[in-house]
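User: I've been trying to design a sequence by hand for this structure and keep getting stuck. Would you show me what you'd pick, starting by listing the structure so we're on the same page?

Assistant: Good idea, let's start from the same input. This is the structure you sent:
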């Protein structure tokens, strides 16, 4: 936060304290809800982590007869969970707790990055409001209680956005360019969807004359080199060069076949929706209710018949099964070409409103804060437009939001997939709160 004026050192201390408070608040929620005593949302990561600890490699069972060397998941979360299991025992609650605490620390890094952007654009007061919003927003506070990729994606999104902003606004150095690329690569190793906002941010960077060509190249090269070991591993192990995950066609089929809902689940049943709608969530009792509702959720995989399952098991490799889903999706969309535009439109609306397939998206503790955040963000953007006070690096923010929104609209979405966008909305929302407080003081 250098070159931000005479109050930079004080602002840095305040921001560190706020980031520390974010970490402590996450730890408090983890200890309160004790999700690590259950499944903690480990899902596919559990099988891979167990295999890693056993020394069998990155293995997962994907519609096959047994586990095989896999590219089904990005490596960061399974490896983090495996580290916890290696320390405390395979399947141990303390191993899941280790992963949750590590993700809580990562949330602190995301809070610090968010604060640096707010400070650079609008000063220390907006910085404090933005980070306090990140601290208090219920969905963000709840996130680290689930060992899922969004806990990796959200902080790294904020960190590489902050680094892009610093690169554009006066920190055009070799060190900053390399750091920006590394942050993008590390983020993609936890959630490859982050390649979309990172790529759009880099393309926008190409238009900025104040950043030299050398720095622009360094950003791309550093990101590529960060990803290279895992991409090379996938190419050698799976027999086909690819990106971080090999599951694109399976995920695309889940989100887009003619009977798809836009997510990987069917809509929540009307009875469950009524029981949860605008319920004031809080405490272990509500968490248990949400878990029961989640277990009642029906996967879109019910469209896979017994004959389909037999055909998949007969295929020799995970890659062959992924290609099976790609071929099936192309056939189904060719037979019903109108289904894809319909599901894309549904996802576009779900990303603006709520996911009807996820029980957690029905409760008031998620719905009310999101509506408030969205309204304040729109107000903040309108205030910037009215006063023509656009930060010179606002294009980074626009590129990141658009990258996430477009990819999830076109492929698949979920309630948790929108959380990184909600984190970015905190910036204009914090500006709106600041201006409202100023207006009130003048009254």
């Amino acid at each position: 936060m250098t070159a931000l004026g005479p109050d930079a050192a004080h602002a840095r201390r305040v921001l560190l304290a706020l980031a520390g408070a974010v970490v402590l608040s996450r730890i408090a929620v983890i200890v309160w809800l004790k999700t690590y005593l259950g499944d903690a949302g480990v899902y596919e990561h559990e099988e891979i982590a167990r295999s890693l600890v056993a020394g069998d490699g990155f293995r997962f069972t994907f519609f096959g007869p047994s586990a095989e060397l896999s590219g089904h998941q990005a490596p960061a979360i399974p490896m983090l969970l495996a580290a916890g299991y290696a320390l405390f025992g395979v399947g141990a609650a303390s191993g899941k707790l280790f992963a949750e605490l590590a993700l809580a620390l990562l949330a602190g890094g995301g809070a610090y990055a968010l604060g640096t952007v707010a400070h650079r654009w609008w000063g220390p007061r907006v910085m404090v409001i933005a980070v306090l919003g990140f601290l208090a927003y219920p969905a963000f506070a709840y996130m680290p209680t689930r060992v899922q990729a969004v806990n990796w994606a959200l902080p790294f999104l904020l960190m590489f956005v902050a680094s892009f902003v610093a690169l554009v606004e006066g920190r055009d150095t070799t060190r900053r360019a390399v750091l920006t690329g590394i942050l993008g690569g590390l983020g993609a190793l936890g959630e490859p969807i982050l390649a979309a906002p990172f790529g759009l941010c880099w393309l926008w960077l190409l238009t900025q004359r104040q950043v030299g060509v050398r720095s622009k190249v360094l950003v791309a090269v550093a990101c590529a080199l960060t990803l290279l070991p895992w991409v090379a591993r996938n190419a050698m192990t799976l027999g086909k060069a690819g990106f971080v995950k090999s599951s694109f066609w399976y995920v695309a089929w889940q989100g887009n076949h003619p009977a798809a809902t836009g997510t990987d689940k069917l809509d929540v049943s009307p009875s469950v929706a009524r029981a949860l709608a605008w319920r004031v969530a809080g405490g272990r009792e509500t968490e248990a209710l949400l878990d029961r509702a989640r277990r009642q959720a029906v996967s879109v995989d019910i469209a896979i018949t017994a004959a389909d399952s037999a055909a998949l098991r007969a295929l020799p490799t995970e890659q062959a099964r992924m290609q099976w889903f790609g071929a099936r999706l192309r056939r189904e969309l060719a037979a019903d070409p109108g289904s894809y535009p319909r599901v894309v439109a549904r996802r576009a609306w779900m990303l603006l409103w709520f996911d009807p397939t996820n029980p957690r998206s029905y409760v008031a503790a998620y719905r009310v804060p999101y509506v408030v955040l969205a309204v304040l963000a729109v107000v903040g953007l309108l205030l910037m437009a009215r006063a023509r006070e656009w930060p010179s690096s606002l294009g980074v923010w626009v590129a990141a939001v658009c990258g996430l929104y477009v990819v999830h609209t076109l492929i698949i979405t979920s309630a948790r997939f929108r959380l990184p966008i909600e984190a970015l909305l905190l910036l204009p929302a914090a500006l709106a709160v600041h201006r409202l407080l100023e207006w009130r003081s003048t009254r």
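That's my pick for every position. To get oriented when you compare it with your attempt: The CA atoms of residues 103 and 151 lie 6 Å apart. The mean pLDDT is 92.
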